[in-house]
TrEMBL record, chain A:
<keyword id="KW-0813">Transport</keyword>
<dbReference type="GO" id="GO:0050136">
    <property type="term" value="F:NADH dehydrogenase (quinone) (non-electrogenic) activity"/>
</dbReference>
<dbReference type="InterPro" id="IPR029014">
    <property type="entry name" value="NiFe-Hase_large"/>
</dbReference>
<protein>
    <recommendedName>
        <fullName>NADH-quinone oxidoreductase subunit D</fullName>
        <ecNumber>7.1.1.-</ecNumber>
    </recommendedName>
</protein>
<keyword id="KW-1003">Cell membrane</keyword>
<feature type="domain" description="NADH-quinone oxidoreductase subunit D">
    <location>
        <begin position="318"/>
        <end position="399"/>
    </location>
</feature>
<dbReference type="GO" id="GO:0051287">
    <property type="term" value="F:NAD binding"/>
</dbReference>
<keyword id="KW-0560">Oxidoreductase</keyword>
<dbReference type="InterPro" id="IPR022885">
    <property type="entry name" value="NDH1_su_D/H"/>
</dbReference>
<comment type="similarity">
    <text>Belongs to the complex I 49 kDa subunit family.</text>
</comment>
<dbReference type="GO" id="GO:0005886">
    <property type="term" value="C:plasma membrane"/>
</dbReference>
<comment type="function">
    <text>NDH-1 shuttles electrons from NADH, via FMN and iron-sulfur (Fe-S) centers, to quinones in the respiratory chain. The immediate electron acceptor for the enzyme in this species is believed to be a menaquinone. Couples the redox reaction to proton translocation (for every two electrons transferred, four hydrogen ions are translocated across the cytoplasmic membrane), and thus conserves the redox energy in a proton gradient.</text>
</comment>
<dbReference type="InterPro" id="IPR001135">
    <property type="entry name" value="NADH_Q_OxRdtase_suD"/>
</dbReference>
<keyword id="KW-1278">Translocase</keyword>
<comment type="subunit">
    <text>NDH-1 is composed of 14 different subunits. Subunits NuoB, C, D, E, F, and G constitute the peripheral sector of the complex.</text>
</comment>
<dbReference type="Pfam" id="PF00346">
    <property type="entry name" value="Complex1_49kDa"/>
</dbReference>
<keyword id="KW-0472">Membrane</keyword>
Amino acid sequence: MAEVVEGKKLSSYAEVGATQYVLERGLDTDVMVLNMGPQHPATHGVLRVELITDGEIVVKATPYIGYLHRCFEKHAESLEYQMVIPYTDRMDYLSAMNNEWVYCMAVEKLLKIEVPRRIEFMRVIVAELNRIASHIIAIGTYGLDIGAFTPFLHTFHDREHIMNLLEWLCGARMLYNYIWVGGVSHDFPPKFKERVAEFLKYYKPRVDEMNKLLTENELFVQRTRGIGVLPADVAINYGCSGPMLRGSGVKWDLRRNVPYSVYPELEFDVVVPKGDISVIGDCLSRHLVRCYEIYESIKIIEQCLDKMPDEPGFDPHKAVPKRIKPQAGEAIARGENPRGELAYYIISDGKGVKPYRVKARAPSFSNLSVLPELAKGALISDVVAIVGSIDIVLGDVDR
Amino acid sequence: MLPKINLLLASSGVAAAVPSVELNQWSNQLSELGIPGLLLISAIPLVFIAVYALYVGVYGERKVSAFIQDRIGPNETGKWGLLQTIADILKLIQKEDVVPAAADKTLYVLGPIIIFVGAFAAYAVLPFGPAFIGADLNVGVFYATSIVSIEAVGILMAGWGSNNKWSLFGAVRSVAQIVSYEIPAGLAILCGVMMAGTLSMHGITLAQSGLQADGTNNGLGILNFFIFQSPVAWLAFLIYFIASLAECNRAPFDIPEAESELVSGYFTEYGGMKFAMIFLAEYASMFMVSVIISTLFLGGWNSPLPNLGPLRLNEWTNGPVWGVFWIVIKGFFFIFVQMWVRWTLPRFRVDQLMYLCWKVLTPFAMVALVITAFWEMYVRNPM
């Protein structure tokens, strides 16, 4: 509590409008500590935010994490390289494909193996499908945070199609273990490409519909516009990435800026808010970035379906090494996860089949660290809107 | 004993020009039976409310929301899931009646009771048809709006007594909201009251029945309803509808119980039957405001069908039994609209809610009131 009293100093406290108003008129009251979480419907899992509130105004917000810590990095040290892949699925469980892909890229770099071109396209397709699934959950649950229940169920309805596709592909609906070091577990089944194209055709009007229902709703815009504005420099200083960074107007996307796989061959835009309906950097901007990235992902998948080489009798295990025992050395791979920049740093001591050290740089962790900046001076309802717009996955924060 | 009030004597203006009509026969006859009759009078709406809350309220809301959200809704328990709400109630009754250790026990127990009583006391003046009304008070509308206000006290008790910060936030928000929204709601009600010239619920309904000074009915049906009788009645109607959503804590004004922000607001700590009582009170309030809005602006128990030449539709569809049908149908329609709004719109923020109330609804309600007053003076009843 000592820290609280210091935090009530005028200089830091009076930066925001509502707070200033309260102070100037002597309306400030005693502060109250309010625990939001770890069991709270709006914290998207087991995040605990300690709010110090003056009435409805938040003086200070401190996130406490670790409720879902599963010692991923320590586990990885005692497992063989390919055994770590299912663990990476469980970090950001809403975009498991992206996680395992980045991990596999790091191991492939360590082993210096080339991946067949068809495999690269398959990986892009499944990762982008997974990105759409992840974004529509983010958008749906964001509506839920703002109080609109219905868009959430409609987005889940659409996500079901993607999960069915991926289940057909590899047997799992959320935690796939599909991308292997040097390959993938199964080749695309017959007619899979047609079904994906069919889904995209069905889904495009549904995105428009979802935007009409939620994004263009006046109440929704009023709740999110100008709330939790994150300036670009602050976003960079805190290491924010993904829609958080792009929502602040920074045109940074690893798929474009540090290209990997076949992304250089594909045409897509890096989405940044135009600032026409939203204030750059606010909750609405971040939401809009996610909405428009869905269109970009659809574009990417369509191009991949066209460009992907058809090889009858293709063996997806062709380049999979029988025994992964890299030379001593280290490798780092970065990839654009739906939530931001995901990186795996692997050290091999060259002595065995287990990594000496695996470090994961999780996007949600850095994105969440900026919460105290955003929540200062906001109302309690705004804190819910801000936490929702950051789109954290606690499995990714805590690892 | 409930006195037989000749509502037409107590009123003035339009209603005074309307000839006396025998109303309220059933409830008057019941009240002559003494205590059992009086109990029956109060039991009839209670049974109605129970059936309505189970089937239109809970089951209907679940089915409507399921339809809006592309789901199926309850479908396992009984035919079409019709027994689902019964099963839920049985479950709630069986639950242990827990009082949190840190709660203020008196307030915690009293809170739901006051909310429940406040919501149901208003049913005394709701006209369930020309022949049945619990008590046709000459200040009926005023009584209904004021007795519902004690819900705010119950909510504050529940929120404070729970000794939970989220409950407290919910309760404080709720009380601020209910007290604020009574002002536009009250002004909008006054528009209807002015047009009828009486505060009695039966009197207001009768003023929309098309009865003329010579005792005949003009048979225009829906055109007699107040919403079509003045250029601003629709505005008052709209303001009252919006304000009534806020008074019932319904979305988009459900910030006191905002699920995603305040967990469940003032009833976070409640379980079992206490929770069911708070829930029932919400559905009771929904029907109550729906009946008030139907009575004030949409003719209450009057048939909306007009006489079309030889087709005496208006005559055929009026009467004590038809009256019950019309008022219940109109009430259910507004309940459906409330559900529709709830499952479509996001939630307001607390400051936006107050802005809407004080800076939008209240000024417009004032304007509607003044225009209605002049309209009554110079157009509908020129002196």
